[in-house]
Amino acid sequence: MAPTAQSTIDARLLAELRELIGDDGMVLRATELKVYECDGWTLEKSAPEILLRPRTTSEVSAILKLLHRRGIAYVPRGAGTGLSGGCLPLGAPVMICTSRMNRILQIDYASRRIEVESGVVNLHVTNAVKARGLIYAPDPSSQVACTIGGNIAENSGGPHTLKYGVTTNHVLGVEIVLPDGEIAELGGPAEERCGYDLVGAIVGSEGTTGIVTRATLKLTRAPAAYRTLLAIFADVENATRAVSAIIAAGIIPGAIEMMDQMIIRAVEAAFHAGLPEDAGAVLIIELDGIAAGIDGHAQKVSELVRGAGAYEVRLARDEAERATLWKARKRAFGAVGRLAPNYATQDGVVPRTRLPDILRAIIAISQRHNIRIGNVFHAGDGNIHPIVLYDERDASETQRAIEAGRDILKACVEMGGSLTGEHGIGVEKMAEMPLIFSPEDLLVMSELRRVFDPDQRANPNKVIPVPGACVEVSVPRRQVAL
Amino acid sequence: MSERDLSALARELEAIVGAAQVRAPSALEARAASIIVEPRDANEVAELVRKCEADAIALAAIGAARTLAQIRPAPVAVGISLARINRVIAYEPDDMTVIAEAGLTIGALNRLTAARGQRLPADPPGPDHTTLGALVAAAQAGPLRLSEGTVRDLLIGVRLVGHDARPIHGGGQVVKNVAGYDLMKVMVGSFGTLGIVTETTFKVRPTPERYTVAIAQFPDLAAALAAAAALHEAVPLIHLEVVSAAVADALGYEALPQVFAGVAGSAEEVAYLLTQAGAMLGSASAIIADAEAATAYEGLRDFAADDAAIVAQIAVAPAELAACLTRSGAEFRAHAGCGVAQIFTRDASNADDLGRTLAHWREIARGARGNLRVLRVNDDFHHELNFFDDPPGPALALMRRLKSTFDPRGVFNPGCFVGGL
Question: Which of chain B's residues have a Cβ under 8 Å away from the Cβ of A189?
Fold first, then answer.
């Protein structure tokens, strides 16, 4: 379908865009554009009027200069695996997708640096360097598909952030095309910067500061050894107390993940991974590092979790058993589909020591709203992902699911936590931003955004709520794996 | 500002915070600010900002004044000392987080956390003189940056007083948080030009059970730097410092290039790592542990080349560092593996000499896609130098917009940062 007469995309603009990037760089048909109507947050949909697929920084720059002259807003997109609606077009008719800019430009093994185009897939970075004993540490669960550009926009995490940090800790430099089409090189291979840390301001800005076209990333030494333990508990209370016991003992595992009984049973029913179905909760604890001493640490962790109430601790004997445990964890969300027609996943954070409290609060919320809630999450970081089960054909239950989700977020905030640990604000949680930020805080953030984008044409209507506007959520949170 | 204007201003400031909170600067502080005010809380800081903005008076937050005394071409009128805003608000050892006011020193904080076997692993020279505010403002780091990262990796929350005396906060007290823009990164390394940081929240880390250093000396710089590069490739170290002969001498070692490879962890880990490191460093290496290792570390951490004519920090891709250091001909203390070194020379008899040296170093850093920042200059020359590199045009344009957004009246430590910001 050609753009309509009312559209901002008129024939002249189309001709100019065609001149810039050719027919093969543009998607105009409504049937094809439907693919781009949402990201992993599938509950709100809005297709762009046109999708542009530039191949180079200069094409991105030319496109943004043209849109700047015409005052047209755009939304950037990587692989579309985001979970908070970050690349949902809202008042932005043009979508610009970086997926064709997918070259690895330079690898400096001795410096542990890699320079990539922003459309490179996360896992491809590690694949390119692992033969030399290096990895790119941030490992979001979507890493087989998500792009470095998308990771930068969302400041993505993953199970191993507990020890290795999130995206912002691994991005040293970017080439960014600003919303007016200017190209800026910020940072570089050096660890120190010259002037303000603009790279740090751009990472996690959810595409509102421009389009990152290249990035210089830090690489990390691959661990030489792993020890992966499954600790089995009668209830979630003891499991979450065990997390604090490990951290308090000065041990920082690579990952500590928790699953409760509902999730364990769903995983077993679906995949027969050998998890104990009678358990109230399990922790998957992975230690990594050098081989020397790692068995001592595993022994100590084993004692600590037993002290916290684990009635059994299993150590993965080989790589196959380790892979089975991780497969069970990573497929947990897929298994949940068996439990209810629909489910909605929350992303909240509490200080790690408050995990027992937030789990108790979630149980109370579940009872109050008469709705089932399962838990599978990054326990070591205090980053919870409660899964609220419902049936969208039941209007009352759907409404109760929405309210339960909100109540959980409020409980996180009341315990000194945050609205999102790794999924971003996007469109999903704009309305909740005032729960943790004052009007002054939000004003300063919107001023910071305008430093990069004075006209607010870069991914508009995201992250910061418009004062006075009320975002009404009528459907529950997303139902996707993570 | 004339003496008379200054004393009038001092009286006005006394009216805001009380006479006991306004004083004359020390000799060092006098190079940073003409009047020192010591507010007792963030509300008083806000009142002072309001006053200065209303009257277009320049102000700057001051810790020990070491950095500002260097980089300021002339003192600001009002120095806001945070000496009295130095409480620990909340230390949660089991969460490994701490909220503390910006006037607290790293040393004081670490004495508190040591009781729980933890530390803030940011280790610039002189922890007892470095306030958390200064740590954030000047983005300082030390040997532990190799294994623990820098302040930008550790700061998870911040409170500041911004323009219009606005109280602003970013981040939170949880270790994983992507809600809102990252104001922590904006403040780190902003040299007090965007507002006055009053409170900081950090991740803390377990202090390793054991810490040992392997020290090796080399006949020449090239050999020392090559050995460090090979070590970095093969062994996970807690720090990897390389010093030139003059630095070794100043630290009390033989006047030859020396490598200090730090290993940490459990007894078993340390034993294994030392075997690895020792095998690479050869028979010339010495192993020191316990109190001796701690003393050696403190010497390295606190080394500041006090008698140099000029000290600068060069930062490049780690693999480029050895070549840059060799070309510079400077004495140095290098954080090998991080690509960062403090380089200095004692030879400069006049400002022209110094200018040529600095231009040479800058060209070396730029050639390696890195940057250079002057840390300290001999008193005789310090007004005539640009302490910061000029960022490329589009980056500088963004920085100007950031500065004018956060500081529209231009009162926060103006005129000494990149591009004259």
Answer: 316-317, 339, 369-370
- State the Cα–Cα distance between residues A338 and A422, nearest whole angstrom: 26
CATH code, A224-338: 3.30.70.2190
- H/E run at residue B361: helix B351-367
Q: Which residue of B has its CA nearest to A185?
A: B395
Q: What is the CATH number of domain A11-97?
A: 3.30.43.10
Q: Give the distance between the most distant pair of CA atoms in chain A.
A: 72
Q: Tell me which chain A residues have a C-beta less than 8 angstroms from the C-beta of B166.
A: 440, 443-444
User: What is the DSSP-derived secondary structure letter of residue B306?
Assistant: T
Nearest CA in chain B to A441: B168
Query: What is the pLDDT tens value at each position of chain A, 482 positions in all?
Result: 444 445 678 999 999 999 999 999 999 999 999 989 888 777 778 899 999 999 999 999 999 999 999 999 999 999 998 888 889 999 999 999 999 999 999 999 999 999 999 999 999 999 999 999 999 999 988 888 999 999 999 999 888 888 999 999 999 999 999 999 999 999 999 999 999 999 999 999 999 999 999 999 999 999 999 999 999 999 999 999 999 899 888 889 999 999 999 999 999 998 888 899 999 999 999 999 999 999 999 999 999 999 999 999 999 999 999 998 888 887 887 788 888 888 888 899 999 999 999 999 999 999 999 999 999 989 999 999 999 999 889 999 988 988 898 899 999 999 999 999 999 998 888 989 999 999 999 999 999 999 999 999 999 999 998 765 444 445 554 444 33
What CA–CA distance (Å, rounded) separates A54 from A102? 11
> Is residue B415 assigned to a domain?
no
Say whether domain A340-423 belongs to CATH 3.30.70.2740: yes
| Minimal C-alpha gap between B245 and chain A (Å) | 25
- Return the domain boundaries, chain A: 11-97, 106-221, 224-338, 340-423
- ipTM comes to 0.96
Q: Is B254 exposed, middle or buried (0-12, 13-18, 19+ CB in 10 A)?
A: exposed
State how far residue A169 is from chain B, nearest Cα, in angstroms. Answer: 6
If one looks up domain A106-221 in CATH, what number appears? 3.30.465.10
Alpha helices in B282-337 (DSSP H): 290-302, 321-328
Minimum CA–CA partner of B167 in chain A: A440
B403 lies in a domain? no
CB contact under 8 A, A195 and B370: no
Cβ <8 Å between A452 and B398: yes
**Residue of chain B nearest A295, judged by CA positions:** B268
Which among B174, B206, B238 is the end of a domain? B206
- Residue at which a domain ends, from B190, B206, B222: B206
Range of the structural domain that residue B92 is part of? 88-206
Q: How many domains does chain B have?
A: 4
Task: Decide whether A11-97 matches A224-338 in CATH topology.
Answer: no
Neighboring chain A residues of B318 at a CB cutoff of 8 Å: 110-113
Find, among A338, A337, A375, A344, the residue nearest to A478 by Cα.
A344
CB pairs under 8 A between A and B: 261
Residues A21 and A6: their CA atoms lie apart, in Å, by 24
